[in-house]
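Cont'd.
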Amino acid sequence: MAGGTKRLPRAVREQQMLDAAVDVFSENGFHDTSMDAIATRASISKPMLYLYYGSKDELFAACISREGQRFVEALTPAGDPALAPREQLRVALESFLGFVDQHRNSWMVLYRQALSQQGFAGQVQNSRDRLIELTAHLLESSTREPDPGTDFTIMAVALVGAGEAVADRIAGGEIDVEKAADLLENLAWRGLAGKKRPDHLESEHPETGYSA
Amino acid sequence: MAGGTKRLPRAVREQQMLDAAVDVFSENGFHDTSMDAIATRASISKPMLYLYYGSKDELFAACISREGQRFVEALTPAGDPALAPREQLRVALESFLGFVDQHRNSWMVLYRQALSQQGFAGQVQNSRDRLIELTAHLLESSTREPDPGTDFTIMAVALVGAGEAVADRIAGGEIDVEKAADLLENLAWRGLAGKKRPDHLESEHPETGYSA
Amino acid sequence: MAGGTKRLPRAVREQQMLDAAVDVFSENGFHDTSMDAIATRASISKPMLYLYYGSKDELFAACISREGQRFVEALTPAGDPALAPREQLRVALESFLGFVDQHRNSWMVLYRQALSQQGFAGQVQNSRDRLIELTAHLLESSTREPDPGTDFTIMAVALVGAGEAVADRIAGGEIDVEKAADLLENLAWRGLAGKKRPDHLESEHPETGYSA
Amino acid sequence: MAGGTKRLPRAVREQQMLDAAVDVFSENGFHDTSMDAIATRASISKPMLYLYYGSKDELFAACISREGQRFVEALTPAGDPALAPREQLRVALESFLGFVDQHRNSWMVLYRQALSQQGFAGQVQNSRDRLIELTAHLLESSTREPDPGTDFTIMAVALVGAGEAVADRIAGGEIDVEKAADLLENLAWRGLAGKKRPDHLESEHPETGYSA
DNA sequence: AATGAATGAGCTTTCATTCAT
DNA sequence: TATGAATGAAAGCTCATTCAT
């Protein structure tokens, strides 16, 4: 009777189910996860899943939604306007990487499952887009005299891509958060803020774009 | 009946099937692609697929293999040792991004499908790892007096991650190759080659690590 | 819809399925029996078969197991040690032949299907071997002064073979149980217990064994 | 090029194919044998099989037919009217068991495959029936003063059944022909020729028939 | 509120069989 | 004569989903 036939309040049951679902989805992937497996993991019966969530797709969407929200919440501290841009960047990086480090299942479900799943990618792309926007804003506000045509969004796309790649290594336990944050901070702070095609100049004085 | 019922030599049919398979896999994903759909797309019968490739898994593996090979071939020009590191980098970036631009299906199958498919990720990860190693080597060889503790591999991970993120935008038709190559070149050339935590120093002379 | 869509307790459904399976297997043979055919015969859907028995092989094994058990149970009375060997033999024969007479499907599935099916023959051969051993023992215990080199096992093999051949005729409705039991009793009681090569003697009086 | 593309006379090809077919059928059973396997074994192409035999069923029938004929031929010496009944029996037994011993594949295909194959059993049953008739005739002709109601056919059925069971052991290499022939000769000569229900007598002296 | 029982629909895979050369 | 190329048809199996209690 692990879990038994207790009557639980709806909110509790919902979380219990989502917890199980996120676990199994992150372990086996969306398609290789059966509703049976989730029900078993949650110690409830299959019809309960359908009663609460309607379908496998909706259940997965609920997972994405909850984990995405947690993800965004984890990044909130970075938005503190009292901090200098560079501090904000550092906080954002540590928040992001720390979240991945401590919620590997969330990360797997959100990024490695949802993004590759026809029909769910868009939903995740929203969270991702907000992260990219945030990053673009940070880059812009910390750049003095930006080159007129600078496209901070695409820079943010690249930076976030780098961040995700590094996050995968963190989720895999291959590197630690501090080291990763250092690397990305450097990358953001120096590599992205420069002019876009300043070959003739920067090859000689590449630092002019960002140094004091 | 586009294609008809002609008898084709084995080699031709093989390519015809792979073409169809790559198309459909890239459109619908591995799991949501049925062998029927591939057979229909290739204008052949399902048993032919099994006769030539044995199973869905093996067919998918064959797709990965062919596209992966093409991918590697596209990057070959970058290995020219006659070029200066920076030139090699530029060529590599343009080759890579150009390939993605002109073979969006290959990119989708290789990266967005294979990497997320349990059992195939490893196969692709190998190619990816080689790309990372190559990048790390490039970074190292273009850095004078590198900081002793510098981990070029993780830098390469980040850079490749950035490249993949940008490549996705190219595959999505959102940006063009030139712009993306500029961005990544800058990123690689300046952002990654410095010391890892040189705040106090490099913010003043960030160029010492790489400029003449 | 003979049977309808009622909800039945597990144990009942199990028997219902096995009944249908034994019927269809005995009619068409293992390979020419489809799971669809069994499901239809049992008035249920195919997934139920898989839910309860896992696979076609396991379903067939379950048939063998149940019918084999019934078969063994039918022979139990013969083991009564209070009976003289000859009585035991008579009871065994009548039990055996009576069972075949009244459970022709069981007989067909067990002997004509299972024994010829690679992978299941062994399972049945075990029961058969036990029957042979039992017969050998019976023969030995009812023989006074057995010839030293007498191989009772091979005798039992022959006798059981004769019994099976006769049983086939009973299952085919060609002869009746009494007649068959008489024949086999005679065969066992007189034909098998003698010396193996008594040429010189019996070739002259071959009739002494049976004539008045 | 084992076999190559030689033009062979029809008769030779036919035997070549049948040899291969009998081999593979006896190894894997009818259903688990594919036309591909037979073609490969015969070193020819599949369409040749169809050209010569029309269908898998017809090919199998041809196997049964050829092997059955050989089987019957092997028994021919036993019909020599110059021999005494007992000699005829001995010859028949040795012919039969010797054939099985030296043509195990034939035996397997004819008895263990064909008999259990819906649609072919009848065809084999013919050969078998002739064997049974022959046996019945031998029994009858060697019995003096047969009991009026004696059914020699069912006796022959039992005896042939015993012979087949013993033959299986020979095919399995468990016993040798001589020993088996001795046993069956004894069985036929003494066990089957008597009255069918001689209870009152033999229950008192059951051993008189065989003890010294 | 909760679940054991049940199924429609679809997928991968395998042949026996035939065509076109 | 001989075969590489091709397929129609069907089988085993799974799963998301629902009904009846």
